[in-house]
Design a protein that fits this description.
alpha/beta; globular; EPSP_synthase_CS; transferase
Length: 435
């Protein structure tokens, strides 16, 4: 258990870990190349390590240089049938993208599983469109839950209109479409992160984008490439909120991904009165990268609409913390997807923030939060969810007394150095305590 003590400031400069979503996708596309994809600043989290382990089990060559923080992945002899079950552990991205990759490799058989948390998460949303392409997938609850068995086949393309906005499902279909017969088109109900499309274009693979439609075409080979993965905006979000709600803060988050499909949190916080600037913008691997400078801000409540949710789905737990420190009412709707993440994040954040004295009402698809509330010290549960643990650590920075977080080790899923960075930025607010 870790104890977070209040602080009045978050000052300095920080680099956050490499973007987790981009790291996953770089590894999967590298597995489809002969020459390989080489990236620096690959995410150090356990989720991306699960992706690399699964791809290695399928015959990929993975070279990691931890001193230089680089990863090179390629499959010079093509992908092979794994000798054992592929374990995605806690990573939904790993599992769903594996299903797309495996489905289109003729005659290859594999079983994909995960930990107890991942076995509860919905897989039917990716299985159904893949089966419509001709994939052979079976498992628990008629393919709704892991473990799932896949027998690869030659797939057909086609048009797939998604019922739920999901970048993971979109990417799984596009991966399958690269080896299918005929063009494969995905139509989204609303925009989601477009890292896969950007990466394919950067590597020279034809992609047609038309509003909410994206189309890929069969390709016999994918060229290799190299680039630096920008910092993860979802990791930066915790520091953006922390600097905004602490009284004397000025923080610069360097070389972070500012892809517009990821920065919905900034748009919402701008409405709430965030004092910030985007500086030194450049491109890396086709992705927009910049320094995000944030200062202490006087926030006010706002309404987050369902249309906005896909661009800040991972940042909603820490936005709920920001809302407790904003004047007036903040209402977040259309976020039912949070109930099927690593935990039920709607419930987890409501329970934790109520325990600290927040005025928060849990709804079916979000929260209604009344601020500005002085949070109390107390105990918070991580629910085994990395984003809940980090969001509650940010809440602890503005509480009136210490906040102890149970099972904080789960932050290693995406951000192993989170508490080290917290110590460096605040100097004195963190200590380990016995449970």
């Amino acid at each position: 258990m870790i104890e977070i003590n209040p602080t009045s400031r978050i000052n300095g400069e920080i680099h956050v870990p490499g973007d987790k979503s981009i790291s996953h996708r770089a590894a999967f596309l590298g597995a489809l190349t002969r020459d390989g994809v080489e990236v620096s600043n690959f995410s150090p989290g356990q989720d991306c390590a699960s992706t690399l382990a699964c791809l290695e089990a399928m015959g990929c060559a993975v070279e990691q240089d931890k001193a230089l923080n680089t990863v090179k992945i390629k499959a010079p002899a093509g992908l092979k049938e794994p000798k054992d079950v592929l374990d995605a552990k806690n990573s939904g991205t790993t599992a769903r993208l594996l299903l797309g990759l495996l489905s289109g490799i003729p005659n290859l058989f594999a079983v994909v599983t995960g930990d107890e948390s991942l076995k509860r998460r919905p897989m039917g949303r990716v299985v159904k469109p893949l089966v419509a392409m001709g994939a052979k997938i079976d498992g628990r609850e008629f393919g709704e839950r892991l473990p799932l068995a896949v027998r690869g086949r030659k797939l057909s393309g086609g048009v797939h209109a998604l019922q739920v906005a999901s970048a993971q499902v979109k990417t799984a279909i596009l991966l399958a479409g690269l080896g299918a017969q005929g063009a494969t088109t995905v139509i989204e109900p609303s925009p989601t992160r477009d890292h896969t499309e950007i990466m394919l274009e950067y590597l020279g693979v034809p992609v047609l984008k038309d509003g909410l439609k994206v189309t890929v075409y069969p390709t016999s080979s994918i060229p290799g490439g190299s680039w630096r993965i920008p910092g993860d905006f979802s990791a930066a979000a915790f520091w953006i909120v922390a600097a905004a709600i602490t009284a004397e803060s000025e923080l610069r988050i360097k070389e972070v991904n500012v892809n517009p499909t990821r920065t919905g949190l900034l748009k919402v916080l701008e409405r709430m009165g965030l004092d910030h600037a985007i500086e030194d913008e450049t491109l890396s691997g086709g992705e927009r990268t910049a320094t995000v400078a944030v200062r202490s801000s006087r926030l006010k409540g706002t309404t987050v609409s369902p249309e906005e949710v896909p661009s800040l789905i991972d940042e909603l737990p820490v936005l709920a913390v920001a809302a407790t420190q904003a004047e007036g009412i903040t209402e977040i709707r259309g976020a039912r997807e949070l109930r099927v993440k690593e935990s039920d994040r709607i419930h987890a954040m409501a329970i934790n923030l109520k325990a600290l004295g927040a005025q928060i009402q849990e709804t079916d698809d979000g929260w209604i939060i009344k601020g500005r509330t002085a949070l109390l010290g107390g105990r918070a549960k991580s629910f085994g969810d990395h984003r809940v643990a980090m969001a509650m650590a940010v809440a602890g920075l503005v509480a009136t007394g210490p906040v102890c977080i149970e099972d904080e080790e789960c932050v290693s899923i995406s951000y192993p150095g989170f508490f080290d960075d917290l110590t460096e930025l605040t100097q004195t607010c963190l200590k380990e305590v016995s449970s």
